[in-house]
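Retro notes (design track)

What went well: tokenization of the new backbones is finally stable.
What didn't: we kept losing track of which sequence belonged to which structure.
Fix going forward: every design gets posted as structure first, then sequence, in one message. First example under the new rule, 332 residues:
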């Protein structure tokens, strides 16, 4: 029996919220709820069902599927999860594929391995980070007594555009003054004797018992997916994982990720050199979308995945060797 709410809307049209995005995979599909920044895994047949009922009257759908138990369960799920709504209007436009407010920063996401070389030139580093427009910056520090370094880094970035600053550091006592800096959002403490998570002000600190040897190896992880309108817009037009994202090694070399054997410039070079040469070279992979890469093009995560795999040219297009298998929905 249909719900009372469904019964009372029989003469209305079924509409799918435009902030809920359907993404079909091979083994399963997903609904990206970009308003709640959440993901719901669904059977592939549910996407076909949604496409069939969108814009139709409730009464017509109930009549067509009156003997279909699975269809009724699907309708109940869509209603309970608030993916659909009923109205007298049967047309609501979809979200545009390209945001008109695309970020104008040269680079947005940056990870840097702090070395003595970079630390000794921290002001030059911070100046280029500012000119590049970096918004999210992560420092990895391999120093068991690095609080002084952290404070100097914070001071050097005082007037920068960085709005999200994070650190990974060895186990040690953290100076509470760091938690008072509005830019600091998270800290990973490795080699901790005990695994735990704590929050101080707005800062999330994760204590992990493992070392830092695998922290920056490229791997797909569920907690690294990005569910937002900004991420979805980028993924529709670029490679979300690589777009405006750089990795800076201990020598200041600018790369795509930790495993990248190529260098596209140095963060301590003259800014104009970075702007004209580095950006031109490193941005070549930005336009290779996940839709053009196997097996990403069969994956339900292709519009939210931030794993920085570098696509390799093949006879049929581009490929990567990912630890997530969309054909079995298993993470290795």
């Amino acid at each position: 029996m249909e719900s009372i709410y469904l019964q009372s809307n029989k003469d209305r049209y079924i509409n799918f919220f435009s902030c809920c995005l359907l993404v079909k995979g091979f083994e399963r599909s997903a609904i990206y709820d970009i308003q709640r920044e959440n993901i719901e895994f669904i059977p592939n047949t549910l996407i076909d069902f949604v496409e069939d009922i969108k814009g139709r009257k409730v009464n017509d759908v109930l009549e067509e599927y009156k003997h279909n138990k699975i269809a009724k369960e699907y309708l109940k799920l869509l209603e309970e999860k608030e993916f659909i709504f009923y109205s007298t209007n049967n047309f609501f436009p979809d979200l545009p594929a390209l945001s008109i407010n695309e970020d104008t920063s040269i680079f947005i996401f940056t990870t840097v391995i702090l070395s003595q070389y970079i630390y000794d030139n921290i002001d030059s580093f911070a100046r280029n980070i500012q000119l590049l427009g970096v918004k999210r910056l992560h420092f990895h520090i391999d120093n068991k007594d690095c609080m002084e370094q952290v404070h100097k880094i914070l001071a050097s970035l005082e007037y920068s555009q960085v709005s999200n600053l994070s650190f990974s550091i060895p186990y040690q006592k953290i100076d509470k003054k760091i938690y008072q800096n509005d830019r600091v959002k998270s800290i990973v403490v490795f080699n901790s004797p005990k695994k735990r998570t704590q929050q101080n002000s707005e800062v999330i600190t994760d204590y992990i018992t493992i070392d830092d040897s695998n922290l920056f190896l490229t791997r797909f992880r569920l907690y690294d997916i990005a569910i937002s309108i900004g991420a979805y817009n980028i993924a529709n037009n670029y490679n979300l994982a690589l777009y405006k994202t750089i990795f800076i090694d201990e020598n200041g070399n600018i790369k795509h990720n930790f495993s990248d054997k190529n260098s596209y410039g140095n963060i301590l070079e003259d800014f104009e050199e970075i702007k004209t040469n580095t950006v031109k070279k490193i941005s070549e992979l930005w336009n290779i979308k996940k839709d053009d890469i196997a097996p990403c093009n069969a994956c339900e995560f292709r519009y939210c995945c931030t794993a920085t795999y570098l696509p390799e040219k093949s006879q049929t297009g581009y490929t990567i060797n990912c630890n997530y298998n969309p054909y079995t929905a298993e993470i290795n």
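Added context from the reviewer: DSSP finds nine helices and 18 strands in the chain.
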